[in-house]
Amino acid sequence: MSEQIKCRCPWLDTTKPDYVIYHDEEWGVPLYDDTKLFEFITLESAQAGLSWYTILKKRSGYKKAFANFDVDKVAQFTQDDVERLMLNEGIVRNRLKIAATVNNAKRFIEIQKEFGSFSNYQWQFVDNKPIISNLNNVEDYPAITEASTAFAKDLKKRGFKFLGPTTVYAHMQACGMVNDHSNDCFRKEEIIEAFSSK
């Protein structure tokens, strides 16, 4: 299929090549790897109040700042590390968000111990299979759902920070718990087919 006739989601700014690559290769693909899930949780919590594209541009900065998203290493970060990261221009220099990432790493590990993996825990909120949405226009996209509200509530109860229902829904979209590609987007069926063949 040529680039000219590829139809993509209505929210995507196709003038930004890196955004297009993220949409075409990552967004909405079911994800089960805990390191990647920790990365996505970290980036989503950093995004609160900002545009996703702002965070996407700083993704490599976050990778360097947070030990390649090695959750065990991040959980060991100290107050000195938080102060050091406050000087790091490669990330959003928000003290509460930086401290939240360290806190969330510790909580993430607790979930891994309880459920065997964070993936096992996370996917239970959609009965272990992606929800396929019916979306045609930008206006059709929800900001929160019952599943994201339940997921966020449980995360909060477990001590996670900066992960409210809206942020959690964005996380669910990103890692394929919901397939929120629009009905006419070329990726929607590709992802459904790839997942159903497993």
Quick recap:
The protein is built from eleven helices and two strands.
Explain what the structure shows.
- The chain is mainly α.
- Helix content is 55%, strand content 2%.
- A two-stranded parallel sheet has the order 1-2.
- Helix 2 runs antiparallel to helix 7 and helix 9 packs across helix 10 (165-174).
Number of helices: 11
> How would the global form be characterised?
globular
Q: What is the SS-derived class?
A: mainly alpha
How helical, in percent, are the residues? 40-55%
Pfam family, one: Adenine_glyco
Keywords: Glycosidase, Hydrolase
EC number: 3.2.2.20
Protein name: DNA-3-methyladenine glycosylase I
Q: Tags for this entry?
A:
mainly alpha, single chain, two-stranded parallel sheet, about 200 residues
Protein topology:
Blueprint: H1 17-25, H2 34-47, H3 52-57, H4 59-65, H5 71-75, H6 79-85, H7 95-115, H8 118-123, E1 131-132, H9 146-157, H10 165-174, E2 178-179, H11 186-196
Parallel strand pairs: 1-2
GO molecular function: DNA-3-methyladenine glycosylase activity
Enzyme class: hydrolase
Organism: Pseudoalteromonas arctica
